[in-house]
Design a protein that fits this description.
Largest sheet: none
Number of helices: 6
Distance between the termini: 41 Å
Helix content: 40-55%
Strand content: under 5%
Number of domains: 2
Mean pLDDT: 78
């Protein structure tokens, strides 16, 4: 694994691995790195660690990041009740596809469900780059799969 240094020297403080990583990635200020991490900060830390070779290339994206991206991208409603087994297959797969295609990272997770679910996830990501009519069709199809 590659050694990385923070932009500024650490201040006398107690750092956790995550707060150190957030400072190294310039996500948090070294003067006050503590506090609860929101989902976007967790994603940025995970991406930074992957970019720097600090974690294996196939390290799985944290589930809370998958959930956050699903909400942010409109794949599920905010505060969608998460079942014990997690998100429905189509939005879950769409998030994995989004991370791999648009952000260029191996998610470290497998597509779930059947071929129809996988195609629906891929179709949703592709629709975001196309016109509104196609996007409405995909949303309609995904709504029927929930």
């Amino acid at each position: 694994m590659k050694a990385v240094r923070s932009q500024e020297p650490p201040r006398p403080s107690s750092y956790t691995a995550l707060t150190w990583l957030a400072c190294a990635a310039s996500i948090r200020d070294t003067k006050s790195p503590g506090g609860r991490f929101d989902d976007s900060e967790i994603y940025e830390c995970w991406k930074y660690a992957k970019q720097q070779g600090m974690i294996p290339g196939d390290d799985p994206v944290p589930y809370r990041v998958i959930r956050w991206l699903a909400e942010r991208e409109g794949l599920v409603e905010e505060d969608y009740p998460v079942k014990e087994e997690g998100l429905p297959a189509a939005p879950y797969n769409a998030v994995l596809t989004l991370i791999e295609q648009k952000h260029g990272f191996d998610t470290g997770r497998e597509i779930v469900g059947n071929a129809r679910d996988a195609k629906a996830g891929e179709a949703k990501v592709k629709a975001d780059d196309e016109d509104d009519e196609d996007e409405q069709i995909i949303k309609s199809l995904m709504g029927n799969m929930r």
